[in-house]
UniProtKB/TrEMBL annotation:
Native organism: Coemansia brasiliensis
Keywords of the record: Endoplasmic reticulum, Membrane, Transmembrane, Transmembrane helix
GO cellular component, one term: EMC complex
Transmembrane segments annotated in the record for this chain: 45-65, 86-108
Protein name: ER membrane protein complex subunit 6
Amino acid sequence: MSDNSELYKYFEPTVQHNTLALSNIHTLTSWGVGTAAGILGLTGWNGFIFFLINWAVISGLVLGIKCQGKPSVYFKSSIMDVAGTPMLNTLLSYVLVWTLMHALVYIYD
């Protein structure tokens, strides 16, 4: 009986809505952080370390504020949905904006 209750623990449209909202948060913050990294002139590993620090801060804020410390209530695989899974897509957006802003500020003076 416990396996059957696990099947109906989550309402799928709500989980999809939460995942979409989380994706929007991560995408918009990656654009902002990428803009900041480009304007600050970060290059190489400094830019990636800047991304990882900001990723940890944003994920912590989402876990603490939006999920109220209980991500398993809002997502199926809890912390992996909040901090791990969308990282590669967000990293690609970050690198795109980071290089664009760096080129606009420092190369085309």
